[in-house]
């Protein structure tokens, strides 16, 4: 993203009244604990690795609704 990364976007969504409760899923190429922690701190509910396991993604979306 040219203006901000996904972590910054997630933080902004968390602080905006209209979007603070949405279920955010990070889709990343890195899955180390430091990357997962950064996702959690930014407000992502789930951190998925590429290539995506669509079965897990679907379960996470349904769980978040």
Layout of secondary structure:
Layout (H helix, E strand, L loop, with lengths): L5 H10 L9 E4 L4 H10 L3 E4 L4 H11 L1
Parallel strand pairs: 1-2
Question: What structural category do the secondary elements indicate?
Answer: alpha+beta
The name of the CATH topology is Rossmann fold
CATH superfamily: Response regulator
Termini separation:
26 Å
Radius of gyration: 12 Å
Question: What would CATH call the class?
Answer: Alpha Beta
Detailed description of the structure:
This protein has 65 residues and is of the alpha+beta class. It has one domain (6-64): Response regulator (Rossmann fold), CATH 3.40.50.2300. The chain is 48% helix and 12% strand. The protein has 3 helices and 2 strands; from the N terminus they run αβαβα. It has helices at 6-15, 33-42, 54-64; strands spanning 25-28, 46-49. It has a two-stranded parallel ribbon with strand order 1-2. α1 (6-15) packs parallel to α2. The longest helix is centred in the C-terminal third of the chain and has 11 residues, at 54-64. The radius of gyration is 12 Å and the shape is globular. The termini are far apart. The model has no long low-confidence stretch (mean pLDDT 90).
Summarize the structure.
By secondary structure, the protein is α+β, with helices and mostly antiparallel strands. Helices cover 48% and strands 12% of the residues. Helix 1 runs parallel beside helix 2 (33-42).
